[in-house]
């Protein structure tokens, strides 16, 4: 039993219980976590909650949609009374004082949180190597990374501990690890899901979303988590964007000029066979030109650090977590931040304060925001002729731990994912095939991008293309 829907069916039939499911989850974690380093914390109370859920299934009647489902949560999402570290030393001993909105909604729907997953520090990275608490290994090949920054959440599902996990995506952090671990991952339309209680990285980019084995499961979790929230003024009502019509076949646009150097030949081959598969199902696949999309990486690595530098100013050694001794207030700030943040976080804070400084603001931040606006326009124009944009999710399969030493090489992993966050549109990834590397067969994902508010379209087509093939 792998999916939420399979578990639900068994729970209702009484052939399997939430108590058994949580017991199995905890057993898998116990057996594998020392080696894989996926969970930073495991919640023992989950077994008591599961017993209650088991009783509720016995009684029957109308039961919450996720009742008894074991779910893992990325450790930058606040759960009241639990440690929320963001995988940073600066928050190593910080306990959340309230629930994130997504947590509240998942809990109200009956989900059971089994533990907190490792990640790149404050969600900055693409491999989960930037965690202050050690690297997470990819369960499919432990010499390799699970991707990032939600690598722990991806690994939690891939190792068989949970049917689903929640991640956050600022520039691809749900989709890229899903691709590396053979999973479904979904980044919602910006504003569809509340950011209240998520540790802010890039506030205009961040969204929480599901990582699952099936598109149907991802849809269910998204439906539970999404919706207006008075605690987040950027959340949108369901009717904010026009409803997209459902069609029996779609026109897919492939940004050809974008698929050139730096993309693994085997990934491209898997992508081409996915295109052939779509055509064999009656869909139309056309080439499109998205010249500004290619500027996505450059724009993202200005906008994101700018927002990071401002969002992380709150970690000053006074208000939260780690605090170093100092002769005066300034020294407390300096020593707490110098000792509390890791190298990648510092790099981005420096970059961010630089691009926002008065002498450089227009040259960098202003330009990047302009590119971003034009990208939105370019995208809106393209969506007049195609229904869905199609790309590989990442340019390579999972790479080896320690292999990507140059930060810029690591950033280039985000080439297909960051334009999606910059423009706010939704995107779905699921496995499109495998590639062989040494002894391993590694999954690679395809990315479907829809217009703003087109989340439902992605679920419908994803279920047809992927779930029906399972
Ligand atoms: N890999 C990207 C980065 O390092 C994406 C991070 C994310 O989505 N949180 O910024």
Give a written overview of the molecule:
It contains 15 helices and eleven strands. The protein is of the alpha/beta class. α2 runs antiparallel to α3 and α7 (215-225) packs antiparallel against α15 (455-465). Bound molecules: glutamine (GLN). Glutamine (GLN) is lined by residues 123-126, 149, 169-173, 201, 304, 414.
Question: Topology, please?
Answer:
Layout: H1 4-13, H2 18-36, E1 39-42, H3 46-59, E2 70-74, H4 101-108, E3 112-117, H5 151-158, E4 164-169, H6 175-181, E5 184-187, E6 207-212, H7 215-225, E7 251-255, H8 265-280, E8 284-288, H9 296-311, H10 329-340, H11 343-356, H12 362-382, E9 388-392, H13 407-411, H14 418-423, E10 427-437, E11 440-449, H15 455-465
Parallel strand pairs: 2-3, 2-4, 7-8, 7-9
Antiparallel strand pairs: 1-3, 4-6, 5-6, 5-10, 9-11, 10-11
Helix pairs in contact: 2-3, 5-6, 7-15, 9-11, 9-12
Describe the structure using short key phrases.
eleven-stranded mixed sheet; 470 residues; alpha/beta; 11 strands; binds glutamine
Average pLDDT rating: 97
Total E-strand runs: 11
- What is the strand arrangement across the widest sheet? 1-3-2-4-6-5-10-11-9-7-8
Q: List unreliable stretches of 5+ residues.
A: none
Give the ligands present.
glutamine
Largest sheet: 11 strands, mixed
Please give the alpha-carbon distance between the first and last residues.
13 Å
Globular, elongated, flat, extended or rod-shaped: what is the shape?
globular
Helix content: 25-40%
How much of the sequence lies in strands comes to 5-15%
- The gyration radius over C-alpha positions equals 21 Å
Helix count, DSSP H or I runs of 4 or more residues = 15
Query: Helix-strand pattern, N to C?
Result: HHEHEHEHEHEEHEHEHHHHEHHEEH
């Amino acid at each position: 039993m792998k999916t939420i829907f399979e578990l639900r069916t068994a729970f209702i039939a009484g052939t399997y219980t939430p108590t058994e499911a949580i017991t199995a989850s905890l057993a898998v974690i116990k057996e594998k976590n020392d080696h894989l380093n996926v969970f930073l914390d495991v919640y023992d109370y989950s077994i008591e909650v599961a017993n209650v859920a088991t009783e509720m299934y016995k009684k029957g009647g109308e039961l919450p949609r996720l009742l008894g489902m074991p779910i893992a949560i990325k450790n930058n999402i606040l759960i009241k009374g639990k440690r929320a570290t963001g995988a940073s030393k600066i928050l190593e001993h910080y306990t959340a004082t309230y629930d994130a909105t997504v947590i509240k909604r998942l809990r109200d729907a009956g989900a059971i949180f089994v533990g907190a997953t490792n990640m790149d520090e404050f969600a900055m990275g693409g491999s989960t190597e930037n965690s202050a608490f050690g690297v997470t290994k990819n369960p499919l090949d432990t010499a390799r990374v699970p991707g990032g920054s939600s690598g722990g959440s991806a690994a939690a599902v891939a190792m068989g501990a949970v049917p689903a996990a929640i991640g956050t995506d600022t520039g691809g952090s749900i989709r890229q690890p899903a691709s590396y671990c053979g999973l479904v991952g979904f980044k919602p339309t910006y504003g569809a899901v509340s950011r209240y209680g998520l540790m802010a990285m890039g506030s205009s980019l961040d969204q929480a979303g599901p990582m699952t084995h099936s598109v149907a499961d991802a849809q269910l979790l998204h439906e539970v988590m999404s919706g207006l929230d008075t605690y987040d003024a950027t959340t949108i009502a369901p009717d904010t964007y026009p409803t997209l019509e459902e069609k029996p076949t779609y026109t897919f646009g492939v940004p050809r000029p974008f698929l050139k150097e730096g993309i693994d030949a085997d990934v491209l081959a898997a992508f081409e066979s996915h295109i052939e598969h779509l055509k064999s199902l009656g869909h139309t696949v056309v080439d499109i030109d998205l010249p500004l999309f290619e500027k996505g990486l450059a724009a993202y690595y200005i906008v994101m650090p700018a927002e990071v530098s401002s969002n992380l100013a709150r970690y000053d050694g006074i208000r939260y977590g780690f605090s170093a001794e100092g002769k005066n207030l300034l020294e407390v700030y300096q020593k707490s931040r110098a000792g509390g943040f890791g190298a990648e976080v510092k790099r981005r804070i420096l970059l961010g304060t630089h691009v926002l400084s008065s002498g450089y603001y227009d040259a960098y931040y202003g330009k990047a925001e302009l590119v971003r606006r034009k990208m939105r326009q370019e995208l809106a124009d393209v969506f007049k002729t195609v229904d869905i944009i199609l790309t590989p999710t990442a340019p390579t399969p999972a790479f080896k731990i320690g292999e990507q030493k140059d930060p810029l090489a690591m950033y280039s992993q985000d080439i297909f994912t960051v334009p999606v966050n910059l423009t706010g549109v939704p995107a779905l990834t699921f496995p499109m095939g495998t590639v062989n590397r040494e002894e391993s067969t590694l999954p690679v994902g395809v990315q479907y991008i829809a217009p703003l508010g087109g989340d439902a379209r992605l679920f419908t087509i994803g279920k047809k293309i992927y779930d029906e093939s399972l």
